[in-house]
Design a protein that fits this description.
Length: 653
């Protein structure tokens, strides 16, 4: 669904979009051009992570022959520029801006100049070692970058009509079709980091060129099809490793098994969800049932056993990876912002394959919690890793927690997350609806105006709501078709009591796979969905050892947390009383306006003799309990009031 079909009117989301337009996009542009003096932090203690400057635009100028110099940054530094361009494209579709368009036109032109005559594009290899092109594909991210480029160019074409964008994209795609594929004489492998498949599918969707879809399918099929080929690929280039990137075990990049046989989420989390996003898209487009089955199995494994309550994924910093079922450590996890963004992409594609509200539930969970937590309220500070439990000193002094930051850095040595978030927020309207020939599904509750006139359907839906502050959503529907239309409204998995009315009359809500389907004849109609949103306690599966005897608080789609700022540090000493009533109220001035949750609890303090209080262990735990009011804020807003402790799961007694 194109952005022009949906216009967001929601004050919260408009604020985020404006933040991206007015703060993030110019800020990121300055970073990409090295024209801003900021501290670039390594995302963890790893000296091989480049952290001096971005140099991303300079890399393009050098590759295009417009400037002299060497490449600097990650081998995938180009993708920061592409994601920026993609966010700009969506932003232009929302709010036209001549100056920004001129700037972006210049970037597309620069990209076209850096493109090689045969269609190849990649500043690292063009500048440093053109002879090593595709020689170390498992680590080189060449196709990963081109995938992001295709996504950006498709978005730019849709937003501005740019012919140059399309020329560059088609040249890239033609080059890839000539170079990779099952035929004799072509390369029979894919990139170590999935993404090209998503880019090719986007190009396929707007051009209808089947060979792009087929190549996307090929890149997926070849992955893990031939472990020997991959081993050869990983060692065929004797030129040495690429800065900061080294060959990893097969599971890391999902090459351990043919993709159709993969049924658990393994390896690097972003790679895995990008792979699944493309697989689901290809499955829908080409009818590949094996892909569909694998996607469903991997989805089940993530959602049932490997996802944090915040919609974060990736349990360890080592390889930024999944580990094993129920291994969900709150203070060492990875939960990269990009991984949750990828999970949102995956969920959206799954909704096209199967009308089941669970996909939208997970999409919403990842969006409202981990994804939004990736950015500070000023739009200029970003988390790469989104912990569920933080004690600032541990991140600084415990080498195994160096990735767990308590304050969002101004920029990161590996800057994949900030521009990824910019493109997600500027395109949030794409996730609100799923449109099918026989029904329109409402997945997210975001005030907006939607019209399908451009799609040849005379249907419009206006959503009016202040969700998630309240759970009341009014849909004003206009059906100008001669036939009935069917709207399916998501009934969130977290809901309690829900009331509904149609055209002003209360009705009984019926449910099919998590959606309430209503059929309308020609004319104007309204549906009111009235969900009670109140703070609720959530508990983890008993196999999650980290969360035993603990509780998390959520309010509608938002997971909550406690912060030292409100509750004093030493959050591990807090106990939420089982019998206490959780209350909520809205605070306009706090963190941009949030609903705060409160509950009665206790803080454990030592009540014994001084000598015993200073000993590390005791047989006589003389704890006292001091009554306290525990105050919770939405998880996505934590870390905006200076450095302090934070926790999602707290002890309950
Ligand atoms: O490898 C490219 C990107 O950098 C990945 O998606 C992120 O996880 C980070 O490693
Ligand atoms: Zn990232």
């Amino acid at each position: 669904m194109a952005r022009r079909d949906v216009c967001v009117t929601d004050p919260i989301w408009k604020r985020y979009k404006e933040l991206v337009r007015k703060e993030m996009i110019p800020y990121q542009w300055a970073v990409l051009n090295d024209s801003i003096d900021i501290a670039i932090e390594r995302e963890r203690n790893d000296a091989s992570i480049p952290n001096e400057k971005s140099h991303a635009i300079a890399n393009f100028k050098i590759a295009a022959g417009l400037e002299k110099g060497d490449h600097y940054g990650w081998v995938f530094q180009d993708s920061d520029v592409y994601k920026w361009l993609e966010a700009v494209s969506y932003s232009l579709s929302d709010t036209w801006d001549d100056e920004l368009k001129t700037l972006a036109d210049g970037v597309v032109e620069l990209i076209s100049k850096a493109q090689q005559p045969d269609g190849y594009i990649g500043t690292y290899f063009t500048i440093k070692c053109p002879e090593r092109r595709y020689m170390r594909l498992a680590e080189s991210h060449e196709l990963y970058c081109m995938g992001h480029l295709l996504e950006a160019l498709v978005a730019y074409k849709l937003a501005t009509g740019s012919e140059l964008a399309m020329d560059v994209a088609e040249k890239v795609a033609a080059h890839l079709c000539d170079t990779f594929g099952p035929e004799e004489g072509k390369y029979h492998f894919a990139d170590g980091h999935e993404e090209i498949e998503i880019g090719l599918m986007k190009l396929y969707h707007i051009t209808g060129t089947e060979k792009y879809r087929d190549l996307a399918e090929y890149f997926l099929k070849v992955r893990g099809d031939s472990p020997k080929e991959w081993s050869r690929l990983k060692s065929m280039d004797k030129g040495g490793n690429i800065l900061g990137v080294s060959a990893e075990a097969m599971k890391y990049d999902q090459t351990h098994l043919p993709v159709e046989e993969q049924d658990t989420a393994e390896g690097h989390a972003v790679r895995l969800v990008y792979m699944c996003t493309a697989m689901a898209d290809v499955a829908k487009a080409s009818g590949n049932k094996e892909f569909e089955k694998a996607c469903k199995k991997i989805w089940r494994n993530i959602v049932d056993k490997r996802m944090f309550i915040t919609g974060g994924i990736g349990s360890t910093v080592l390889g930024e990876s999944f580990t094993l079922d129920y291994d969900l450590p709150n203070d060492t996890m990875y939960c990269e912002t990009c991984a949750s963004i990828g999970l949102i992409f995956f969920a959206k594609q799954m909704l096209n394959l199967e009308r089941n509200s669970e996909y939208a539930d997970v999409m919403e969970r990842a969006l409202y919690n981990t994804a939004l937590s990736g950015m500070a309220l000023d739009g200029k500070h970003f988390f790469y890793v989104n912990p569920l439990e933080v004690v600032p000193e541990k991140g600084k002094l415990d080498p195994t927690k160096s990735h767990v930051k308590s304050v969002r850095p101004q920029w990161l040595g590996c800057a994949c997350c900030p521009p990824n978030l910019a493109r997600l927020i500027t395109s949030v309207e794409d996730y609100i609806y799923s449109v099918f020939d026989d029904a329109v599904l409402v997945n997210l509750f975001i005030a907006s105006d939607m019209s399908l006139e451009d799609k040849g359907k005379k249907i419009s839906i206006r959503q009016k709501t202040d969700y998630p502050r309240s759970g009341k959503v009014l849909f004003e529907i206009e059906n100008k078709e001669e036939t009935d239309v069917t709207i399916g409204i998501r009934l969130p998995g977290w809901r309690d009591e829900v009331k509904g009315s149609i055209d002003g009359s209360a009705v009984k809500i019926t449910e099919k796979c998590g959606y309430w389907y209503v059929q309308f004849p020609k004319g104007e109609h309204s549906i009111l969905l009235d969900m009670e949103i109140k703070p609720k306690r959530w508990y983890a599966n008993l196999n999650v050892s980290e969360d035993i005897h603990k509780v998390a608080v959520a309010r509608g789609p938002q997971v909550y947390c406690v912060e030292g700022k409100d509750n004093g540090d030493g959050l591990h000493k807090l106990v939420l009383r089982k019998d206490s009533q959780l209350t909520d109220h809205f605070e306009e001035e706090l963190l941009g306006g949030v609903s705060v949750v409160e509950g009665d609890g206790e803080r454990l303090v030592w009540g014994g003799s001084d000598a015993a209080s200073s000993s590390l262990y005791t047989c006589r735990p003389e704890y006292k309990k001091e009554a306290v009011k525990i105050r919770f804020i939405p998880y996505n807003t934590w870390g905006n009031r200076g450095e302090n402790e934070m926790r999602v799961w707290i002890t309950e007694e």
